[in-house]
Amino acid sequence: MTTPFVDTLRSDSDVIHLEVSGGDALHIRVQSAELWRAVRVVVASWQLVGSVKAAALEAFFPDGADGSDFMVKLNGFEILHEDSSLAFVGVRNGSTLLLTHRRRRPVR
Fold it and tell me: How many domains does the chain have?
């Protein structure tokens, strides 16, 4: 399988590799609109949305961030059950997940 188009888009040079054994690897992208940053993630389809969210938060905020302050969206809709697998919520090879603040933040 060739790598999808999301691997060629602007993102950080590092790739987050989550456990891929026991299934096909998905090449996805996690983007933070507020930070104007994106990371590439190679992950198995059986991994949980919450584990991808935690890995992306670690990449975006190395000093730590509260995961409950952020939500994950796919195709414009919030993923309500982060304990579901990526395949169950509809993430496919080449998908982009949006990681955004749960509440609107004032512009200063």
Answer: 1
